[in-house]
Amino acid sequence: MQFKSEVIVHGVKESQGSIDGRAFSSTTFHCEVDLAENSAGRSIGRATRPFKLGDAKEFDKWAHLGQSLPLKAIATFEMAAAAQDGTKMVLVDIRPLEQAKPTAPKAA
Description:
The protein is about 0% helix and about 55% strand. With about 110 residues, it is an all-beta fold. A five-stranded antiparallel sheet has the order 3-2-1-4-5, with no helix packed on it.
């Protein structure tokens, strides 16, 4: 099941290389989420959670937005079954809602 949600992206990280002869390539989006209360106690505020999407080339689509972070985006998630009656959300698409902020002119 897929659904769309507005998210706040705080960071985007490219990862690529190889370990023990195995190549890897991914982009990780760090999106803001609510802190959940649990049996150990109460919580307030927000944190970020990493979501991987595609390969390292995905980073190039966001590189020009670096000075604009954090920014709002529309994310498409796939909800899937996880262990012990849990669910997991997998990021399948993300698009910025905001344009890059103009850079301030350099002082002379």
